[in-house]
Amino acid sequence: MDDYSGALVAAVLSMYDLYVLMGLAVVFLLGIFNFAAHKAVLESGHPMLSHIPWFFRPLGGRLSLLVEFAMLLGAMVMVAAGSSGWAWIYLLYSGLNGISAWLVANRRL
Hints:
- By secondary structure, the protein is mainly α.
- It contains three helices and no strands.
């Protein structure tokens, strides 16, 4: 392999790494949004929160934040492995989560 093709391979790999890092950054920022939306719902005092299952009630329902963290961690691991589809799925999840949080926090539901 000559120097030119080696440099080309390095450039392609660095672009791939850039896309992976960009995907990780986007998923991380979406995770911050999801945690904020989740906390807003927990602090809203909505009557629907009294109907959550018993295993989410410890710590005032904050145990459900562990589920949120597991989803964020799973999405980040998959994006880091090069699966950009998981970033799109997490974006869709975040959009639905944001709409749901807005409906619950503003008592429109």
